[in-house]
Each structure stands twice: as structure tokens, then as C-alpha cells.
# Entry
Amino acid sequence: MKRLVFVLALLLAATARPALAADKRPMKVDDLFRFKRVSDPQISPDGKLVAYVVGAVDLESNNIASCLWIAPTDFKGKPRQLTNTSKKDRHPRWSPDGKQLLFESNRGGNGQLWAIALDGGEAKQLTRLSTEASNGIWAPDGKHIAFVSAVYPEHSDKPFKESDALNKKRMEEIEKSPVKAKVFTRLFYRHWDSYVEDKRQHLFVIPFQPARSASEGFAEPKDVTPGDRDAYPTSSTFSAGDDFTFSPDSQYLIFTAVPEKNEAWSTNYDLCRMPITGGKKKWVCLTKDNEAADGTPRFSPDGKKLAYRAQRRAGFEADRWELMLVEVNADGSFKGKPNSTTKNNSFSVNEFIWGPNRAGNDPFWDGQRIFEIHDVDGHTVINDMPEIGGTNRGGEHVFSFGQNSSLSMSKDSRVLAFARAQMHQPAEVFVCSAHPDGMGFRQVSHANSKLLAELDLPKPESVKVKVEGAEMQMWILKPPGFDPKKKWPVAYLVHGGPQGAWEDGWSYRWNPQLWAAQGYIVALPNPRGSTGFGQKFVDEISGDWGGKCYDDLIKGVDYLEKLPYVDKDRIGAAGASFGGYMMNWFAVKTDRFKCLITHCGVWNFDSMYATTEELWFDEWEHGGPPWGKNRQSYEKHSPHRLAANLGKFKTPMLIVQNDLDFRVPVSEGHQLFTTLQRQGVPSRFINFPDEGHWVLKPKNSEFWHKEVFAWLKKYVPPGGR
# Structure
């Protein structure tokens, strides 16, 4: 445990908050858009540089531009901007020799792959597809690049020039046609916020020719995965970074494939394998024995093993992700049967990366290790674990608490880079030694240091609330200028998912600091269904949305009301997605809240099932379709069946529901608003016709925040009294 204490000491030193200066001020809505959005750190093969993306909001143009930056990991120089565009440069990936940086950009009008040499010169465009190109990665030998493009599958087995011309022609015909009718013959015709338009995401490969210029033409891509199937996850639920990779010999692609059939209600994602020269429409499946999801292939540094994530229960998207390991040949084919290295652990692996591959006197370096990220107790932590034995040595090598993501390792496995955020600090890039006795845990990027120095951003407190058969973790964030002698109002926020969690992290959509700065104590409970508290805790939400989870949340309110500084007569609640559902359930079950804010929440389980796109989610949560054996599940906890109680409790409600939300369609909001208005309940309906499940456009987000805070202020006056 000494090593853990050492790590925590370094962590605290790295994030220690300086004494508040007299000119510190609370955060404002405008500040949310002043913050730079740092993401996707990628360390160079030699470990000396880290590349990352910095996004900047321009409210006037209603745009978020993103550029690439690089920073030295020895801290002997300052970070510098590598690309400069008013468009979007993203997804940087180092060439194996460290001389080139591959990235995706729409600077030329649409999304294509570009490369820039680190020794100087302008970026060069590598692809020109009518269907665009994204998510580029390098082959181990540096001679090829693979990427994703969404194409019409009926043309995919034709030579590229012919198929690309046919794709372009069809898209132009659709754009120019005065008839905008859409015709569907199968489900999953739309997803999240856009229509699929019968396209499939395929993997392409091009040779990398650094000397080639645009005037010489572009290398001809090869469609490696022809056919009427997606070779890349269509649902982010089954994605964890780069979801495909080259084999150790650079001659094959191993990738996460969408279910071959019944994709709207199946979670049977598989690892498939195809040669980079292309092949038949029938792909080679490597994980056919598992009917649940498999994905995220990663080869060990020596190329002898493949690690990937897998679930056990078919149809359950929130099942625990185990880390599988299998011996492989150089071409990526399996030599044996996969085994779980985490079957004896309680955590679910979010993402992972291979670590050391050297023998030496230090047993830490003897053999290969894997670094992974998992949820635990309101954090997403980085942990290192031996790849043999399936233990994490008592958890004594936890590298970082807070909200961590985007692991990247140098070729010699000595330097680890990642993005890290906390509730009082947006994501920045950190690096550390991959050896637990020489952490050197330090922040590399400082995109937001100047703005952070202006703001009073309190740190949250973690408490435990006793609930039936368990404990519920809850964050409490006090407002700037908090005086414990006064009584303060509460904003009670319920997270989405429901298999998700409030973490000690940062968000540009629901930012607890911004809510607290309005003059509220912000409570962020993690009730039944939340991740990071064991799979049993997660499982207990399924089929019981309005049961134990609701009881847990009410217990959370009980806890808050007993605090000496809480004004129990000024408590409002808000939530999105599942949190929006819970607001609707609150509205028909209790009068304890002075107002409710429901964003993209479910009101009617029957109409939700009939209009959503990922049917596997509803079918697992309810034990089948509405006409199945578990019909009562759709009725027991559906708020609309208790609609008369809206008029009984008359809790004022603000509703946000958006036209492009295909996960929880806009009809849910229409039904709720009609029912509220008919019963004379104070209510306001905000509809964004150009937004999906989230409000992402800067101007829309600004409007959203002002409306939400105005509603809260009207019924739950802010400030201490």
C-alpha cells in the first residue's frame, strides 16, 4: 500500500488548489464557452512528445474549431500549436517512426485524412473520397493506413473509382431531388441524431506515400470490408477508442463488426478479420462462440497475444466488460481459445492499453502488463495489472483518480499519457512514468490555466447514504462563497444511462460547477443502476426503473434535508435521458420538489419502444417487447399511467425535447406537455429542431442554460438566507 500512498500524494500535489485570491469569482454561463476543450492525447513512439486536440468555441459563428497541439514530455519546452484552422482537425495518430502525424480534417470542405511531417512543411491531404474518411490508423510497418468511410454497400465490391463515382452520383441525386421522401425496408434506418440512408461503415486501406502531392493524385483506397454490414460500431456503447487494428504483420485488419443480422435488437458485436487486399463479403469471425458483445482489439507489443473486451450476457449493453486474452499468429488469427483475465475482478474495463515488454531485475518489468480504466466509487481510475493471473495486486497501482480517458503509451513503455479532468478542472493532458515507483505525475497541457485562475471552483464532497440493502454514493458541491450558517437551496441532479454515474469529472453539457455558481448546493447522487459500485448494483435497475432507484433518490433527499445548511423548502430537481425519465416519475409520485426540469426523458414506455432505434436496450430493461411475456414491466413504472397525479401535485415542469433525438424521440415531450397543460400545471416546453439527445451547438447550449437557470430561479430562489 505504500506505493498507493505515494501515488496519491503525487496526485494531491499535482492538483492542489491554491489559496483563493480576493478577485476569484463564480463561474458564469459565458465561461463555459471560454474553456478550451482538450482531448485525445497521443504520445510519440519515443515518448518525447505528446500530440492532442484543442477545441475552441466561437459563439459568434456558432462553431467549435479544433486544432492539433504538441508538447514535450520532459517539460523543457512549452506546448505549441501544430495546425491552425477554423475548421476541425482531430484524431491525431503517430506514424511508427514518429516522423509523421496522421489526422482527420474537414479543412478542405469535407472530412478527409491528412498527414503532417514533424520536421516542418504543410499538411498534405491523403484521401479524396466522396463519402469522406475518418478514424485513420497506421500499420505497424508504416506502409499502409486504414480508415472508415460510410458507403452504399451495393457498390462496395466494385473497383474504387467506379464505386466512388456511384456513391457521389447517388448523394448528389438525393441532394438535388425536390422529393425528400425516405423509404425504409428494415430497422436501424436512423441512429442517435441522423438517418443512416442505407449506408454502411466500411474499412478502407491506402498505401502511405509521403512524397506524393495532390497534383500527383491520391493513393487508391481498397474497401477491405465489402458487403451489407457495418465494420465499425454504429453505437458508441460498443466503442472504446480505435475499434480496429492491423495484425502484427501489417497484412490484415481485425475489427469490431456490427451484428450480421437483427442489429436493432442484438448486441452480438464480433471481432472479424480480413486481409488488407480486400476479400469476400463474408468476413472471417474470430469470436463466433460468444453471442454477447466483443470489441476493441489490441495486440501486445511482441505481437504474440491479442487482448479485447467482451461481455457475457447477450442483449445487455451495460453488462460488465471483461478483458480477454488469446495467443495469436503474426497474421492475427487465433492460436488458442480466449480466456478472461478479469473474471475474478468486480470492475468493468472501459478502455485499456498494453504496457511494458521487457525483462529485468525489477519484477514490474518482467513480462507484459496492461493498463486499464474502470469506474469505481464516482471516479474513472487508471490501474495497471499483470496480463497473467487476472489480479490487480490489491489495487495498489492505481495511477490516477478523477475522470481519466484516452490512454497512450510510448513504444518503450516508459511514458504513459492520458486526459484527466475533475469537477473543478476540465480535461488536460497528463504524463507519467509507467513504473509505479517513478511516477513523475505531471500536467503537460495548460490550455485553461489562465481562466481557471480567475474562477472560484469548489471541490466536491463525497458522502454515503444508507439505502435498502446497500449504500448510495453522492457528491455534494457547495456554491462559491458558501456560508454554513445560512440556509441554501439545492439543485438535485439525476444522471442518465441509467447505467452511468456522476463522476469527479467535467462536462460541457451538465456542468455541476456552473449550477453551483448560480447559488445552489448541487447534489449528484449515484443510485441503483450506477456504474462503479459492482455489477449487482448496476443490474438492480433493470426492470425496476421506478422502484429501488427511486427509493434511493428519495433517501438522498432525506439526507440533504437533515443537513443544517440546507433549506428543505427550496429543493428543485433536474435530469436528462434516464434522469429526465426520473423527473417525470417524480412528477407523478411526489410533491417534494418545488420544480422539475426534464431533458429528453421517457414519459410513455410503449411509445418509447415503438419509436426508439436501439431496441436491445428496451427489450433488456423490460424483459422483452411490449407484446411479450413481461408486459407488466412496461406498465408498472411508466409515468403516463399515473398522469392524473400531475394535477394532484402540480409541480412546475420545464421540458426539453428535440426533433433529432432518435434515442428518446420528441413525441415523449409532446405527450408530457399536453398532459401538463390540460391539467393546468405550470409548464414550459423547449424544442430544438436541430439538436439530438444532447444540445451541442454553442448558441443552442447558451440558450438552454439561460432557460434552465431562469426556470430554477423562478421556483427555487438561489443564495443563502
In short: Confidence is low (pLDDT under 50) at residues 1-21, 389-396. The first strand starts at residue 37 and ends at 43. The chain is about 20% helix and 30% strand.
